[in-house]
Amino acid sequence: MLPARPKYAEFNEAIDMKNPHFKIGMKFRDFKQFKEAVKNYGVKNRYVMNFRPNTKTRCKAYCSKGCPFYLWASPMVRDGATVQIKSGVLKHECGKEHKNRHASAKWIAKTYMEQFRADPSWKLAGIIQAVKTNQQVEITRLTAYRAKNIALREIDGDEETQMTKLYDYRLELLKTHPGSTIKFRRNQGVFEAMYVCLAPLRNGFLAGCRRIICVDGCFLKGLYGGQLLTAVGIDANNLIYPVAWSVVDRENRENWVWFLQLLA
Question: If you average pLDDT over every residue of the chain, what do you get?
Answer without folding.
Answer: 91
